[in-house]
Please model this.
Amino acid sequence: MSRAKKRSTQKPQPAAASGKRSKTAAAKRRARSPWLLSAGIVLVAAVLVVGMNLAKRAPQSAGALATLGANVEISLDRGQQLYDANCASCHGSTGAGYASRETPAPALNGSEHAWHHADDQILGLIRDGGLQMPAVGASWSDSDLASVLAYVKQWWTPAQLRAQQGTIGE
Model:
């Protein structure tokens, strides 16, 4: 029998059955496994770190902040004074944010996400601080906190004010 006939009588084997391709695919899977495991570990660690930072940023006195509306005196003039003296250097005199290259403080004037946060959360960040934001602590009264927040909320549109959840006095 000639060589040509021998070749034609043998059935071609599928690539997977030949063993050559399956070894390559298995090697690729094994090579990816440590990378995927590492990526998964990093992802879980990142979620934990973010969660811990958010827990730290939550107001420590949320119960007291929730009742500000009943017993505070709100003064827009006082709010502007406090804002200009304590907040404008980072958030900008008009609340446009990013007034300082050293501290990338977000806009408070309604052009970004500030209006999405409940009053208690904003008040908690002012009183207790944030990742880069310094805390005013107990040095500000509840009236001071509410006055600054009322001053900032003047920059928000009526639609933003209506859509904001958890406002003082609800």
In short: The first helix runs from residue 3 to 9. Residues 49-67 have pLDDT under 50 and may be disordered. The radius of gyration is 30 Å.
